[in-house]
Design a protein that fits this description.
268 residues, globular, alpha/beta, 10 helices, 5-stranded parallel β-sheet, two-stranded antiparallel ribbon
Amino acid sequence: MENSNLSQIRRECATTILGLYHRAHAGHIGPSLSCLEILIDLHFKRMRPEDVCILSKGHAAVGLYTVLAKSGRLDPQELDTYYKDGTRLAAHPPCSREIPAIPFGTGSLGHGLSLAAGIAFSQRYTGRSFQVYCVLSDGDCNEGSTWEAALFAGHHALTNLTVVVDANGLQGFGATCDVCGLEPLEEKWRSFGFEVQVAKHGNVFADLDAAHQAAACAAQKSNRPQCIIARTIKGHGVSYMENKMEWHYLPMSETQYQQAVQETEAHA
């Protein structure tokens, strides 16, 4: 799919995301907007029907729900149930496995890559052919279980595993460099046995595509799993949210919501 079409999908998904959060008077808007291009790129350009995506940063669930609905993997009408009593679409992805596109409940950070690596490893015993994508956050990369899973993936040469780190530089309690610094992040993932590429502008589809293509090409030769470090912006596309830690949590007022929608619809 052309990047211009993906940009239109991004505008539509972002507007839906803002509406869902506003009606629910809920937070975690910033994290959903920072990884929206990552999720759209995967579901509209990269993934085949048999492939698997795990959103380890489960607090961005609304971004995932919206992309699943837009790509035909979830009934769009079900989005109206978000955050309501009895819904399958809670603040974090559900554990019920009733939604085929969501294989595991996530959100307690550090668990997603272990799940993804296990699924990728299972291919050797099932005879199936598929790719597993796992979207991590800065906070995920603070967790020891993430690096244990990375060791496992590198050791077993899980070439059917692709990690995408939504590296927006902020997390629940402040800037990543202050909470628990991750740099040099590229070198860390490479030392764990991954082919690593950086999308310098992780909210730009062309940059994401170039990074994925380069990593996949290198992995074919090296027999290694892949890691894309996407340098993103928390709250991307809404001026008063961008690079502001508080939008990890805050809900929007009516005035803030209207401004966010106007800026999103004007976003190129």
